[in-house]
Give the backbone structure.
Amino acid sequence: MEIYINIDGVIRNTIQKFDHHYKDFFLSSETENEESFEYGIEYPIHNDSILDSYKFQSNDEYLNFAFVDYSMEIFGHAGLSYMNAITELNNFIYENKEHNVTLIGLDHLGKSKPATLFFLSKNAYLGNIIKFTSGDEIPNLWEKCDLWITDNEKIIDMCPSNKKIIKFNTDYNKHFTNQYEIDKFSQINKLWLEDTEKNTTLILTQ
């Protein structure tokens, strides 16, 4: 089975670090006095709509902030989604060697890619495959994937009927639900990893 796992949200609490540096850079008293544009944050914050919550003067300003000026601070030094997240992920990979696990870095631009590799390295990730890709590629990725563990509603909504999806719960995606949900890797049910097509064939045979 081909298993995809999102880095952001599932393994790394990227939004928490983004929020910290946004407030520090744009909402400090010195910045507010110098800028005529009104920066701010609209709540609730959802993981799939950062620009709906954090105000920037332009998309270019957002891209420069996240993927150039503060990429290492945001993507390299963000905290884990929960304590022992990578330890449990390493255990999951070790205990399920019959499955191929790929980490997915979605919409990573500029310096966020090396910063992400730094994040995984410093937290001792032991897996073999890491893939950076665009959100536009989600339908194509689903063709190669059997099960996806994600916090992203868009990926869940695009899940084909013959594939499996596990929602990873965070503070930023409570606005939707899914059939299979976890708060940590140790909660993954072994039955969810069984091949859907093989099970269907077995039932029909019997």
About this structure: Residues 2-12+79-198 form a domain with the Rossmann fold fold (CATH 3.40.50.1000). The beta strands are 2-6, 12-13, 79-80, 100-106, 129-133, 147-150, 164-168, 181-182.
